[in-house]
Design brief:
424 residues, alpha/beta, 7-stranded mixed β-sheet, 12 helices, 18 strands, binds zinc ion
Length: 424
């Protein structure tokens, strides 16, 4: 084991940089390059420390994946590590009320291990659901190799307004915990952004709308959670502090408010009307469709509210429309909204292809497009395997360009230069 000077260790902790792994050479039967849509045969990826380099170092270990197809580590741009499935409100309330934050952190660490073993070497975690900044702690623990887990882009508690987000429906005499950080009024919201940045978030996540319904003319609407002044203050303050903003926005009501305020990504976007699609395409604002979670919750939730089956139908139409118009579509599953061990994040690939994408486009959504959304990591560019890119690599048996389902069974994983999983 390499000795790390105490001073350097202190720096690593504060910057949350992963430990430096030994030099490695990965031999791939085929190597997919999402940026160029190129496929190389018998390719070699040289890794030194955390990044990909041009030539292998002398004495580098060899990982032989010549029987497999390699591609850059997958990115899930919408997860909740601190959540373990909430198809119903009762399941959500139970986790927030009955489970301590330390217990939830242990479950989240297990979720992170599942994500990594399944080839998701980076996740953007969009809200801890009442567990404060535990995702920032997980990010640090994973990066330092204390526990195995993906690179985490953290957003801390996420933001809502009074009355807009669970826990709801309890007696007014009880002081219930909040699933988000609430703010009311532009100044309060600005302060809430500063507070989150103080504790290490990479992104600001806000909930733009709630209570989705059909309008008499057959359209869709919802309640906008913030006034234009409030949401404007959040986005302005986040950008001033060089953080981007992800907006949970399901219907045109939320999209109007979010896009006018200048958010950087739309989350879910189940009902994208023509005006929204036009704006997003023109300004290249990406969205994470989170199809897998909608498929997971629509059955149980429709029992009490039929709107969820209607949202399912609308979301496919929205996806096709956005795809045709050239809206950037980033891979995001909302894992945690479904139990990490009940559904697979990589199911999203099949849904994307079923909704009109080519396999290449679906793979690019989880690499190139998601990487553009997140920006470079401290250890290099994400979603690629050229020199200068972070050393995140996965391998599958079979050709994902012929059948994206093979991505649901990742055989080998290298994350930040470290071998996590090898073929049996
Ligand atoms: Zn979510």
């Amino acid at each position: 084991m390499r000795r790390i000077p105490r001073v350097l260790l202190a720096f690593l902790v504060s910057a949350s940089l992963p430990l430096v792994a030994d030099p490695l050479v990965v031999k791939c039967g085929k190597l997919l390059d999402p940026a160029t849509k190129g496929v190389k045969t018998n390719a070699v990826v040289a890794i030194d420390g955390r990044g990909v380099v041009a030539a292998p170092a002398a004495g580098a270990k060899v990982l032989d994946l010549s029987a497999y197809v390699c591609l850059p580590g997958l990115i899930d741009a919408h997860t909740h590590l601190l959540l373990q499935g909430d198809a119903t409100a009762a399941e959500y309330d139970e986790q927030v009320l009955k489970e301590s934050t330390p217990y939830r952190a242990l479950r989240a660490a297990a979720a992170g291990k599942i994500a990594l073993d399944h080839g998701f070497t980076t996740v953007r975690d969009l809200g801890t659901e009442g567990a404060g900044f535990t995702d920032v702690d997980l990010k640090k623990a994973f990066a330092l190799g204390i526990l195995p887990g993906p690179r985490v882009v953290a957003s801390g508690p996420a933001m809502g307004t009074t009355g807009s987000y669970p826990l709801l429906g309890f007696s007014w005499e009880r002081k219930m915990p909040d699933g988000v950080l609430k703010c009311d009024g532009a100044d309060d919201c600005r302060k809430a952004v500063r507070y989150q940045v103080q504790y290490g978030v990479d992104w600001i996540k806000l909930y733009a709308d709630r209570s989705y319904y059909r309008t008499p003319d057959g359209g869709w609407a919802s309640i906008a959670n913030y006034t234009p002044e409030e949401i404007g203050a959040i986005v302005d303050e986040a950008h001033r502090l060089r953080k981007k903003v992800a907006s949970h926005s399901m219907t045109p009501t939320g999209h109007r408010a979010s896009l006018a305020a200048g958010v950087d990504s739309i989350e879910h976007g189940d009902v994208l009307d023509d005006e929204t699609v036009k704006t997003m395409a023109a300004r290249k604002i990406p969205y994470c469709p989170t199809i897998t979670v909608l498929d997971f919750v629509r059955g149980p939730r429709s029992k009490t509210n039929p709107v969820w089956e209607e949202l399912w139908k609308a979301s496919e139409e929205s996806f096709r429309k956005a795809h045709r118009a050239g809206v950037p579509i980033a891979f995001g599953t909302d894992a945690g909204g479904f139990d990490w061990d009940k559904r697979k994040q990589a199911e999203e690939f099949s849904f994307m292809v079923a909704h009109g994408m080519t396999p290449w486009e679906a793979i690019r959504a989880a690499t190139t497009v998601a990487a553009d959304l997140l920006g470079p990591s401290a250890d290099g560019k994400l979603g690629c395997l050229d020199p200068g890119c972070a050393a995140d690599l996965v391998a599958v048996a079979g050709d994902p360009l012929a059948n994206v389902k093979v991505l649901e069974d990742v055989k080998a994983v290298v994350a930040a230069g470290k071998v996590i999983k090898t073929p049996r």
